[in-house]
């Protein structure tokens, strides 16, 4: 079940962490002056990271009944404590994890990485 919201959690984490790295980097005088040389780019980058974070965060905590969110993960873990048994953990750890990209909601296509680019699985 967690795999269904994993992409949103990772997106929120990565965008927030990257935004914070930019904020910390700006505390260095050298980096601050470099950022100011291309201020429009870095402002757009920061706004994009903030927007990405809030969209992903909203999806994680969405309360509608027709979406997968942290609420359903919690309900599922309470209803199925066997998910935390040693055999279940072993099975999860042994399951191969491919690099996949979560498609936008409402999209029927599934994407995967092929080299350095994302392509529909049917083309791999």
What does this 3D model show about the protein?
- Strand 2 (111-114) and strand 3 (117-120) form a beta hairpin.
- Helix 1 runs antiparallel to helix 3 (39-60).
- By secondary structure, the protein is mainly α.
- Helix content is 60%, strand content 8%.
- The protein has 2 domains: 2-84; 96-124, no CATH class.
- It starts with a helix and ends with a strand.
- The model has no long low-confidence stretch (mean pLDDT 80).
Structure in a nutshell:
With 124 residues, this protein is mainly alpha-helical. The protein has two domains: 2-84; 96-124, no CATH class.
Helix content: 55-70%
Q: Mean pLDDT, nearest integer? A: 80
Number of helices: 5
Q: What's the Cα radius of gyration?
A: 19 Å
Task: Give the terminus-to-terminus CA distance.
Answer: 26 Å
Shape: elongated
Q: How much strand? A: 5-15%
**What is the string of SSEs from the N terminus onward?**
HHHHHEEE
Biggest sheet: strand arrangement: 1-2-3
Uncertain residue ranges: none
The description of the largest β-sheet is: 3 strands, antiparallel
Strand count: 3
Helix-and-strand structural type: mainly alpha
Number of domains: 2
Keywords:
single chain; 124 residues; mainly alpha; 3-stranded antiparallel sheet; 5 helices; 8% strand
Topology diagram in text:
Layout: H1 2-25, H2 29-37, H3 39-60, H4 70-79, H5 86-94, E1 100-101, E2 111-114, E3 117-120
Helix pairs in contact: 1-3
């Amino acid at each position: 079940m967690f795999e269904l919201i994993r992409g949103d959690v990772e997106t929120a984490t990565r965008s927030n962490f990257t935004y914070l790295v930019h904020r910390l980097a700006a505390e260095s005088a050298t980096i601050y002056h470099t950022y100011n040389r291309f201020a429009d780019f870095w402002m757009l980058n920061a706004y994009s990271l903030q927007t990405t974070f809030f969209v992903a965060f909203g999806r994680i905590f969405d309360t509608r009944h027709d979406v997968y969110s942290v609420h359903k993960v919690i309900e599922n873990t309470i209803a199925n404590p066997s998910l935390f048994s040693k055999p279940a953990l072993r099975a999860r750890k042994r399951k191969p994890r491919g690099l996949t990209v979560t498609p936008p909601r409402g999209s029927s296509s599934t994407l995967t990485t092929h080299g350095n680019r994302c392509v529909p699985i049917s083309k791999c």
